[in-house]
Design a protein that fits this description.
Layout (H helix, E strand, L loop, with lengths): L4 E4 L3 H12 L6 E5 L28 H6 L2 E5 L3 E5 L4 E4 L4 E3 L2 E4 L3 E3 L12 E2 L4 H11 L4 E5 L3 H12 L3 E5 L12 H13 L3 E3 L4 E6 L5 E6 L4 E3 L2 E4 L3 E3 L2 H5 L8 E2 L11 E3 L4 E4 L5 E2 L4 H17 L9 E6 L2 E7 L6 E7 L2 E8 L2 E8 L2 H13 L5 H5 L11
Parallel strand pairs: 1-2, 1-7, 2-3, 7-19, 9-16, 10-11, 10-16, 11-12, 18-20
Antiparallel strand pairs: 4-5, 5-6, 8-17, 13-14, 14-15, 20-21, 22-23, 23-26, 24-25, 25-26
Helix pairs in contact: 1-7
The chain binds flavin-adenine dinucleotide.
Amino acid sequence: MSGGALIVGAGQAGFQVACSLRQAGYDGAVTVLGDERHAPYGRPALSKERLKPESELQYLRPESFFAAQRIDLRIGTSAVRVDAAGRRLHLESGEVLDYDQLVLATGATPRRLPVPGGDLAGIAPLRTAEDAERLEQRLGATARLVVVGGGFVGLEVAASARARGIAVHVLEAQDRLLARALSAPMSAHLLDVHEQAGVVVSRRSVVERFVDDGAGAVSGVVLADGATVAADTVVVGIGVVPNTLLAQTAGLAVDDGIVVDRSLRTADPAIWAIGDCARFPTVDGALVRIESVQNATDQARAAAASIVAGAGTYDAVPWFWSVQHEQRLQIAGLSTGHDRAVSRVANDGLSVFCFRGDELLAVESVGRPKDHMAARKLLAAGVRVDHGQAADPDFDLKTLVP
Ligand SMILES: Cc1cc2nc3c(=O)[nH]c(=O)nc-3n(C[C@H](O)[C@H](O)[C@H](O)COP(=O)(O)OP(=O)(O)OC[C@H]3O[C@@H](n4cnc5c(N)ncnc54)[C@H](O)[C@@H]3O)c2cc1C
């Protein structure tokens, strides 16, 4: 097959870069390879709507779309090795494809919990359509669900299961929920929301092993302090590991993600990496890897623009959302390294402004979509917000937007 743009990964980022290449006028062949057996679908629903009985997988586009856009979508196809010097990609089937541009959009794989009993039936991660389908079916016969990990995926699963009347116990190793991603006040708010909804949350709880029911299925979780929590089903949500194997076969730099420059290009000028698998420099030079739909789609757009029109830079303000017990959490910016969190408490919700000194790094909002939208614009423009303005729920942030 002739070169063109070859995209590995038919997830959010792979799908978007193919679309954006066409929108930007790319006229060569566009091929998307995906090792799952589904056309591109949205992962966010897997821990939310898809866990309701009789829900369905949400495809990003109907299959006819790909033909109309001249995108050759090859699902159930796994790439195993990159021959960077020859600009060729080796598939598991033995087939070899040429490329002019190779985009790695390989996503990430759930981290496994390396404790005894981790392979028992009824213990599962949640990443793929199949994981969600299995979990949804299992929830129908589950009275007690244990969620290991109080991160976004775990907490969303907890909320979805609780809505089905299931007793849910979340085990978090840190002393607060979402400790890496959220400020302390927003963590405390979410803890309250979960507890109000009847979810039991144990913090500083480290899993030591899983208990076998005698027939190869899980029946409980033993903690490091000796306590046992009964469970019919366990969901493990302790983070992901970026899929970097293919990049390693190409001899590319890998460091908790495929290392790219500000145009999302690797050290090989014909190879790009985007989405959950990519580690990229932010405006202030720090290398980060972000797991979100916004990051995957915006990086895909930026990479497509660079491929078609030459090097550009990716500098979008990160934003993220999560839904737990009907509460929509929205985050603008990255709070890593903040030393002060200013809460804006209002009748309709809460926003937390994360500062490093006087510099606003991120704003986390629940029930305050206007704060979120304004925050995205303020962060993009680098506008100063003082602590008093941040704390005042009646101060309209929009007035600061240039
Ligand atoms: C349950 C869940 C809920 C989420 N909720 C939210 C949310 O509310 N908001 C939000 O912003 N984000 C959310 N996310 C995160 C978001 O879905 C991801 O950040 C996004 O999907 C990343 O897109 P991606 O294309 O980089 O990776 P992926 O979507 O993981 O796609 C990568 C694809 O590449 C395939 N692949 C890997 N290696 C190969 C290979 N060698 N050959 C062929 N194919 C390969 C993988 O199988 C996969 O299909 C959620 C994620 C999960 C799992």
